[in-house]
Amino acid sequence: MPVQRLSDAERAAALQGLPGWALRTDGLAISRHFTFADFSAAFGFMARVALIAEKLDHHPEWSNVWNRVEITLTTHDAGGLSARDVAMAREINQLVPAV
Ligand code: H2B
User: Whose CA is nearest to atom 14 of ligand 1?
Assistant: First the structure.
């Protein structure tokens, strides 16, 4: 079954449970910025996220500059935000201290 985009209400509810994540202005993706002590810590985090991505078969759009990582989650197969993005964001949040 194809993955479904979240409705406006589902999106709003999901964001309530995702501290640190913001909805992109077009409503089709969520993103979060992370800052670490140095590059090694940032890259270690990315390695953990990569393992989650493989486990969930869901892959981030991301960038890294030294100690900073920016992650955007959207579901290409759905053309927008789906439950897969929410599940991925929840797992990523478990890797870092609460905000
Ligand atoms: N990641 C993201 N972000 N969106 C997708 O639609 C997606 C994915 N689809 N990872 C998956 C892989 C799909 O291409 C494979 C075949 O399951």
Answer: 77
What are residue 82's DSSP bridge partners? 5
Q: Which of 83, 24, 90 is nearest to 52 (CA)?
A: 90
Query: What whole-number distance in Å separates Cα of residue 16 and Cα of residue 62?
Result: 22
Ligand 1 atom with the smallest distance to the CA of 77 is 6
Quote the tokens at residue 57: 């078969």
- Return the residue matching tokens 């290409």: 76
Listed residue (81, 92, 75, 84) closest to 23, CA to CA: 81
User: Where are any strands of DSSP class E within 21-89?
Assistant: 22-23, 30-35, 61-65, 68-73
Answer yes or no: is the C-beta of 2 below 6 A from any ligand 1 atom.
no
pLDDT at 1 over 80: no
d(CA 3, CA 35): 31
- pTM exceeds 0.85: yes
Cross-strand pairs, 33: 70
